[in-house]
Amino acid sequence: MAVDNTALFKIGYGLYVVTSNDGTKDNGFVCNTVCQVTNTPNRVAVTINKQNYSHDTIKATGKMNVCCLSTEAPFKVFEVFGFQSGRNVNKFEGCTPMRSSNGLVYLPKYINSFISLEVEQYIDLDTHGMFICAVTEAEVLGTVETMTYNYYQSNVKPKPQPAKKKGWVCKICGYVYEGDPLPADFICPLCKHPASDFEPLD
Ligand code: FE
Question: Which label site among 10, 104, 120, 173 has the fewest CB atoms less than 10 Å from its CB?
């Protein structure tokens, strides 16, 4: 029996900012492993890498907010909450967040709902911890659909810049010769000026 790991990439995910507070500052991180697991009562599972500062904070405090990112969330949100650690920086500096009844923050924009969770069970998964939680408060804040991981990959994450074409442009008419070097005897096919009237593309 073969295991094609790329088959697992076909599992769909949403993207969320999960917030918590370590007692001195608000924090949040980007998480894709948020999943409702039962509905009577509502329970939500959130799985967090143990290396993540929020893992320890949430394990200690037993509460978190899940902010459901909408497709309006710009790349900046991922830079602030995803690419740095709350151990070293205050991710909410320069942002005036909203607060839910549990005292934790939620993002003032770029989300379509928040869900406040209280941890009921913790499952140790070696590299990760899985928090099984009760829902204590939840509110819909907008109609824009939830950011999926696929949407992020296709529309939010910056694309690598295509390699610049080498070539020469005619200073007289703007004709572009693709290639380098420009043949010395080249004549512009549009305005018939010689190679000396071309300059390199930059
Ligand atoms: Fe020309």
Answer: 10
Examine residue 124 and state whether it is found in any structural domain, yes or no.
yes
Per residue in 2-49, pLDDT tens?
999 999 999 999 999 999 999 999 999 999 999 999 999 999 999 999
For residue 186, how far is its CA from the centre of ligand 1 (angstroms)? 11
Q: How far is CA 117 from CA 70, 80, 157, 169, 189, in A?
A: 20, 23, 29, 61, 69
Cα 180 to ligand 1 centroid, rounded to whole Å = 17
C-alpha–C-alpha distance, residues 133 and 102, integer Å: 14
Domain containing 59: what range?
11-156
Kindly give the distance from the C-alpha atom of residue 193 to the centroid of ligand 1, in angstroms, as a whole number: 6
Number of structural domains found in the chain: 2
pTM for the structure as a whole: 0.79
> Based on the domain organization, do 92 and 171 belong to the same domain?
no
User: What is the C-alpha to C-alpha distance for residues 75 and 82, in angstroms, rounded to an integer?
Assistant: 10
Q: Same domain, yes or no, for 80 and 177?
A: no
Give tens-digit pLDDT for 151-187: 999 999 998 877 777 899 999 989 999 988 999 999 9
Are both 66 and 123 inside the same structural domain?
Answer: yes
